[in-house]
Specification:
Shape: globular
CATH topology of the largest domain: Peptide Deformylase
Largest sheet: 5 strands, antiparallel
Strand order of the largest sheet: 1-2-3-6-7
CATH architecture of the largest domain: Alpha-Beta Complex
CATH class of the largest domain: Alpha Beta
Order of helices and strands: HEEEEEEEHH
Number of strands: 7
Helix content: 25-40%
CATH superfamily of the largest domain: Peptide deformylase
Radius of gyration: 17 Å
Number of helices: 3
Low-confidence stretches: none
Mean pLDDT: 95
């Protein structure tokens, strides 16, 4: 297994619409395992393949408290949605930023596992929010798209500033080790 690099907003690759998974092979199982390892290490509760520049309709998530209940969704579809609620969301591709987003409170979804077997699942609360959030990634949409233009621009500027500071620190650290 390998930890993958998570793309960060406003990287244009995050806007790529994912293609359906058509081949259910060892490479897909390995990608799912790598996504889980990356998600757990980040740490996060969900990760879409789009976020690691793999534009396949593949999502992993684990909203359990003990982090021992991973779920893999290939080609997920929402069959029904009920109720609505506002939840504070964050995103591994938008690090350190949290804001409220309105989503369905309960959903029924259909997907395939890494072997291609179709299953259906009823989700509510955090699990429902997480799957909806990750499915947005498969469409090239991020949670910041639900926010005002002003908030989105402030977030973009903050993340760019944070990235520049991180690069400066990394260069200084590398230079210090060189001596």
């Amino acid at each position: 297994m390998a930890r993958l690099q998570i793309l960060e907003y406003p990287d244009p690759r995050l806007r790529t619409k994912a293609k359906p998974v058509e081949v259910f092979d060892e490479a897909l199982a390995t990608l799912a395992a790598d996504l889980l390892e990356t998600m757990y290490a980040a740490p996060g509760v969900g990760l879409a393949a789009t976020q690691v520049d793999q534009h396949k309709r593949l999502i992993v998530m684990d909203v359990s408290e003990d982090r021992q209940t991973p779920m893999v969704f290939c080609n997920p579809q929402i069959l029904s949605a009920e109720g609505s609620g506002v939840t504070e969301e964050g995103c591994l591709s938008v690090p350190g930023i949290f804001d409220e987003v309105k989503r369905a409170a309960r959903i029924r979804a259909r997907a395939q596992d890494v072997t291609g077997k179709t299953f259906e699942v009823d989700l509510e609360a955090l699990a429902a929010v997480c799957l909806q959030h990750e499915m947005d990634h498969l469409e090239g949409k991020l949670f910041v798209d639900y926010l005002s233009d002003l908030k989105r621009e402030r977030i973009r500027k903050k993340l760019e500033k944070d990235r520049k500071e991180r690069v400066t620190r990394e260069r200084a650290s590398t230079a210090a080790r060189a001596y």
